[in-house]
């Protein structure tokens, strides 16, 4: 029988049709909605309190730019509405470079830096806090004269002909990001004596009484971590006196990444992002796939006329994301302070231009902090050359990571080591051999050899079957793909995303009460029984009930369902509901079996 699901036809399920979550596109509609009107008033009051502008008479010499109200709904990780946000945005596209603005670039912290700091946080058991600066861009001070129309819906009735002369930055202005970064940077350096990292200008650090405090900045999202929790609390308190902060507590959600803790491990995942991506592609009900791509195939960039084969390949990627949406990058607390890299290359894999794919992955301790998979810019004449260029890319990344650790006064226990599965490339990095075959390679590539001779880097050989970077160069079979994926520390996450310490402590208290019911074993339901009958809607027959095995936190216990009384059964159901909501993912629901 041919069904719609077998034919790939799915109707979208509108679960949120009853929620008022529409983002209005006109101010007239928003003013009629109480939630959006209140959001607009809050934004206007914040601008007035911040002294963002002053009203001045309009002049023909003034270049007046416009503005527009923007509306957005902020959602929680579960998709529920967290906040109605209205924001006034200046029409910066009406500004002229060199007249209305000059510098526009504003640095943000690099993802690799975030992972390195989180790895340090786990290895040293530091405290990490997250804060958000409210109306961040409004704190930037302007050095140029910028004039803007009054806000629609909030025109001063006593001065309707006046315009706003901006004193501080506003969202939409070309120079707004730069003005905010300069304001924050000057405050951290001059007020609190922080140092700006040379490896990443969005990282600030300070040493207090032998303890270090690190600050990572991504626009208005800020991570603060360090070994001394009291110093962190004191700094956040002082920081909030200058900038309006929203203290988000323990790190749980940062830049679209969900963070959760389980014992001595941290997991980084993007479950919500994956679901949004599948929802956008109308593939919420798609089938799961074990690997993102079939071996021998590839996805091309910027395909102008995609065929059915390309579309099916894209759908397979989404199917793989569905199968692994509960997976996350695992950061563990153990491991030595050392840098380890793996490099690989797929020589002349592109049939169009014969260029190679070079890839590397770099670990700090046991944690994966940096990776790359890129097509090389030149055509290489041998596999050794392509592997050597991949070595050069990894060496440059490791040198940058080393400079960061040196700034933070963090010493590694051993020299950084790169594992390569090509003997010729490994020997070429150590000695100037094969001159006739490698004399055409650019001189700047040979800085790998300089690093090795200076004993700042070690290059070693590893068999291809143990080369982790192989997963980043070409599609693999499921067996090899699954093996290397585990080596990359990508594992299933059987936990509740973003629980806080209060909830964890509360669960521990409740578990103590539950242990009075259950033998000293804990509580995770295992699917260790099978149904003897496939017929449904029949009352349970106690004589045919199977034993129920339970396990929680490493403890084990056994119980027979026919001996369960109503109180014990009710306790188990309540326990499962509580744990599945807060800390533990139940693998199978409790139910009667025939």
Cα end-to-end separation = 30 Å
Contiguous runs where pLDDT drops below 50 for at least 5 residues:
10-20, 496-509, 511-564, 581-594
Strand proportion: 15-25%
Major β-sheet strand ordering: 8-9-10-11-5-12
Query: What class, by secondary structure content?
Result: alpha+beta
| Largest sheet, strands/sense/barrel | 6 strands, antiparallel
**Tally of separate domains:** 3
> Which shape, going by the Cα principal axes?
globular
Count all strands and give the number: 24
SS element count, helices: 14
List the helices and strands and how they pair.
Blueprint: H1 27-31, H2 34-49, E1 53-57, E2 64-65, E3 67-75, E4 81-90, H3 111-124, E5 127-133, E6 147-148, E7 162-166, H4 176-192, E8 195-196, E9 203-208, E10 211-218, E11 221-226, H5 229-242, E12 245-250, E13 253-254, E14 257-262, E15 265-269, H6 271-280, H7 308-323, E16 327-332, E17 339-346, E18 357-364, E19 367-375, H8 383-407, E20 417-420, H9 423-430, H10 435-438, H11 447-453, E21 458-461, H12 478-487, E22 490-492, H13 501-514, E23 547-552, E24 555-560, H14 566-582
Parallel strand pairs: 2-6, 17-20, 20-21
Antiparallel strand pairs: 1-7, 3-4, 5-11, 5-12, 6-7, 8-9, 9-10, 10-11, 13-14, 14-15, 15-16, 16-22, 17-18, 18-19, 23-24
Helix pairs in contact: 8-9, 13-14
């Amino acid at each position: 029988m041919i069904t719609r699901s077998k034919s790939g036809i799915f109707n979208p399920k509108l679960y949120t049709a009853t929620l008022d979550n529409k983002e209005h596109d006109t101010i007239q509609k928003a003013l009629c909605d109480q939630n959006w009107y209140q959001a607009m008033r809050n934004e206007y009051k914040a601008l007035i309190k911040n002294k963002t502008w002053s009203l001045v008479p309009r002049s023909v010499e003034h270049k007046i730019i416009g503005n527009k109200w923007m509306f957005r709904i902020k959602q929680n990780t579960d998709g529920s509405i967290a906040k109605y946000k209205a924001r006034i945005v200046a029409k910066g596209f009406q500004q002229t470079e060199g007249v209305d603005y000059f510098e526009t670039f504003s640095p943000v912290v690099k993802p690799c830096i975030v992972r390195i700091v989180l790895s340090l946080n786990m290895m040293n058991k530091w405290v990490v806090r997250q804060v958000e600066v409210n109306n961040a861009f409004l704190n930037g001070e302007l050095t140029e004269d910028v004039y803007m129309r009054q806000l629609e819906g909030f025109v001063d009735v006593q001065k309707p002909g006046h315009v706003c002369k901006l004193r501080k930055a506003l969202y939409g202005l070309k120079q707004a990001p730069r003005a905010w970064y300069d304001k924050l940077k000057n405050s951290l350096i001059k007020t609190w004596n922080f140092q700006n990292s040379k490896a990443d200008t969005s990282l600030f650090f300070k040493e207090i009484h032998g303890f270090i405090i690190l600050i990572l900045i991504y626009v208005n999202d800020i991570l603060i971590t360090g070994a001394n929790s009291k110093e962190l609390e004191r700094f956040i308190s002082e920081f909030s006196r200058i900038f309006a902060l929203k203290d988000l507590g323990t790190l749980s959600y940062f830049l679209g990444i969900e963070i959760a803790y389980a014992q001595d491990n941290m997991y980084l995942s993007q479950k919500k992002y994956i679901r949004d991506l599948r929802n956008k592609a109308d593939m919420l009900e798609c089938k799961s796939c074990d690997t993102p791509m079939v071996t021998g195939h590839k996805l091309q960039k910027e395909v102008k006329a995609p065929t059915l084969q390309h579309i099916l390949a894209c759908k397979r990627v989404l199917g793989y994301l569905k199968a692994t949406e509960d997976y996350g990058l695992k950061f563990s607390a153990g491991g030595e302070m050392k840098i380890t890299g793996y490099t690989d290359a797929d020589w002349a894999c592109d049939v169009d231009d014969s260029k190679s794919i070079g890839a590397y992955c770099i670990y700090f301790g046991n944690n994966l902090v940096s990776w790359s998979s890129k097509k090389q810019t030149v055509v290489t004449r041998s596999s050794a050359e392509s592997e050597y260029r991949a070595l050069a890319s990894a060496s440059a990344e490791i040198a940058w990571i080393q400079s960061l650790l040196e700034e933070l006064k963090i010493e590694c226990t051993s020299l950084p080591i790169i594992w390569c599965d090509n003997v010729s490339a490994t020997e070429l990095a150590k000695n100037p051999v094969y001159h006739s075959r490698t004399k055409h390679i650019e001189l700047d590539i040979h800085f790998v050899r300089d690093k090795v001779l200076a004993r700042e880097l070690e290059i070693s050989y590893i068999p291809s079957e143990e080369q982790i970077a192989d997963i980043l160069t070409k599609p693999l079979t499921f067996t090899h793909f699954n093996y290397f994926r585990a080596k990359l520390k990508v594992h299933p996450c059987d936990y509740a995303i973003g629980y806080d310490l209060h909830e964890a402590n509360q669960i521990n208290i409740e578990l103590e009460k539950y242990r009075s019911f259950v033998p000293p074993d804990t509580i995770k339901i295992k699917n260790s029984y099978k149904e003897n009958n496939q017929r449904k809607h029949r009352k349970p027959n106690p004589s045919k009930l199977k034993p129920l095995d339970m396990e929680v936190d490493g403890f084990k216990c056994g119980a027979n369902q026919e001996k369960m009384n109503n109180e014990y059964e009710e306790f188990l159901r309540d326990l499962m509901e509580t744990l599945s909501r807060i800390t533990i993912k139940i693998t199978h629901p409790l139910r009667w079996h025939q």
